[in-house]
Amino acid sequence: MSNLAIRVEDVGKQYNIFKETRYTTLREKIVETVKSPIKTLINPTGSEKFWALRNVSFSLDHGQVLGVIGKNGAGKSTLLKILSRVVEPTEGWAEIHGRVGSLLEVGTGFHPELTGRENIFLNGAILGMKRTEIEKKFDEIVAFSEIEKFIDTPVKRYSSGMYMRLAFAVSAHLEPEILVVDEVLAVGDAEFQRKCLGKMSDVASEGRTVIFVSHNMSAIQRLTQECIILDQGRMVLRARTPEAVDYYLTNDFSASGERRYAPSDVPSGAYPFKPLAVRVRNRAGVITDSMLSVEPITIEVEYELDSDITGLRVGIYLMTSRGEYIFTSFDTDDPEKFQSLSVRKAGHYVSRCTIPADTFNEGRFVIGINASSYMVKRYFSDERAINFSVNATGAPGMHWVEVRHGPLRPRLDWRIEEAP
Amino acid sequence: MTTTAIEQKKKPNVVIIRPSKGWVGLRLGDLWAYRELIYFLTWRDIKVRYKQSVLGILWAILKPFMAMVVFTIFFGNFAKIPSDGIPYPIFSYTATLPWELFAASLSVASRSMVSNSNMISKIYFPRMIVPLASVMSSVVDFLIGFTILIGMMIYYKFTPTIAILWLPLLILLALITALGVGFWSSALMVRYRDVGYIMPFVSNLWMYLTPVVYSSSMIPEKWRLIYSLNPMTGVVEGFRYALLGTARSGSVMMILVSSVIAVLILVTGMFYFRRMEKQFADMI
């Protein structure tokens, strides 16, 4: 009973959409108030309300590591912000036993003009560390961040990688009883991510309480024992991690596997090509943005042609989440097909391709689309049309718990023979 | 009292998070617990202020000094504003210095919440620290500008009297006023960015309501009390009294009235700030 770390009861957070997107000016407020006194009295901001989080309840003991999964906008960040006291809930209450440290976004409060050394102290203080505590950990922080040589250089001269490393190092060395982490692992190179993961599991194994939000299912699986799944602000499941991840990946929580184009998204120069949608489907044909490495992935582009186009090719770019190209492919790459389809008639089409199983490593990937006639015109292109994530469960080499470099994870036919 | 303190120690750091309604307590204990952050933020503001400026810290001297020169030329020489028999340069500099302290503090404090929005929307700490630290950082500029005043006092042969002991209190009074108004304006500015445009104007107007370029002896006797409702009147009047010995029968009364008003502004400002605090992260 006394081991309780966090208890959340019926917590909800309501936002005004209007307030969120822009701030009011005094003049608007005055004009508004004069114009419609009654309306203003009833609804002072004249805005729509929506619940970012509602009826969420759970409790967590000290030493437990809880994962929070959900697609964008499910309320994960709102939950963390409430627990770290950045925002107040609209209803319900929570009880927290112990100091909370949050890694909501590393590097908060870093000042570009100050040196690395100065920023360590400043950032530490902002995160609630005592000066003596920072002094004690100073060397460790510097060593972890690997920026010894530049410690007295203003951070504005740092590369983004150095900046991230330093920022994470400070946050990672604060020793709260309860640590709240949001997506830190989405940044940095593979080497650094591995280091972060290592530090995270150290923290977890030291018996501290961690709440961990991530899109990275393999990180979730490695670090947490239990997860909650949020969807549209509600808690839909609390279960042991393997079960929760499975539930999340197989259920259609990530309907974002589809990108639709409204007429307003399409520039007039695209005529007569009119994109309608881009979709990613798993083996079962379900539209989702969570894929398994061991299953084939189908990508389709749906479009209309308002008139005939000569020499049209519709294709995709596949990129890593950092924007490095992995490959480009067009629906008329096959010369014979290109010949036979030299004029594509006006009409409604779907161009579909399947990427074979055992292609991708775990991570997030971005698909861009392109519709053009070679050397004539590029009708339409969207470099970041849609993205999907790949889970490497069952992929080659998963019996070694380590980050594999590179975006691909092919199953190669290795032969081991005794040399003559 | 003691029993509750012991009980609190037994159950360390239990935080209850729940929606708050309307006016809330000030929680000054939280401010104390985060005193190191106040120090670091103040230090950051000082450190960053003059980075990449050629003259650097010299600006702290130049600003009040140039103001004094302009005032002396236009108000002292051309307009011949009486200065109670004191040479006009030192008469105006003695007032410009605390005025600059106030005006600079107020200006950074007003902007402080918005300019630190990144921190506020990401991490919890008592929000009152932000305007507080920004006010503190102006004190350094003031102290540097003060060295010029000492030089001028030697030049014009003013020997300080025992009245100089008032100074720390008067500086505090200027800071309290700036902080009080700063709490109001920074909290309002989160909601209405217009405040950012209004404040320089308010500050300008306020200077002419304060005896910076003229002497308060120019104000008719019957208006003096109302005049001293402006806390900066007490500060400036006090500075001249403490350093130049311009004692007048009403001076102490003026300082007292000003102090009461300043504290009133501070306390109401703090409560208003705390009331708005819960919305900051949502609105900023």
Brief summary of the model shown:
The complex is a heterodimer of chains A (420) and B (284). Chain A has 11 helices and 20 strands.
Please provide a written account of the structure.
The complex is a heterodimer of chains A (420) and B (284). Chain A is of the alpha/beta class. Helix content of chain A is 25%, strand content 34%. Chain A has helices spanning 17-21, 26-35, 37-42, 76-83, 116-126, 131-145, 160-172, 190-205, 217-223, 241-250, 335-340, and strands spanning 4-16, 49-61, 65-69, 91-97, 100-103, 178-182, 209-213, 226-231, 234-240, 258-260, 273-281, 290-292, 297-305, 309-310, 312-320, 325-330, 343-344, 347-355, 363-373, 377-391. In chain A, the strands form 5 sheets. In chain A, strands 5-6-7-3-8-9 form a 6-stranded mixed sheet, sandwiched between helices. In chain A, β19 (363-373) and β20 form a beta hairpin. The longest helix of chain A has 16 residues, at 190-205. The radius of gyration of chain A is 25 Å and the shape is globular. The termini of chain A are far apart. Chain B contains 12 helices and 1 strand, in the order αβααααααααααα. Chain B is 70% helix and 1% strand. The radius of gyration of chain B is 21 Å and the shape is globular. Residues 1-10 of chain B have low confidence and may be disordered. Chain B has 284 residues and is mostly helical. The chains are: A alpha/beta (420), B mainly alpha (284).
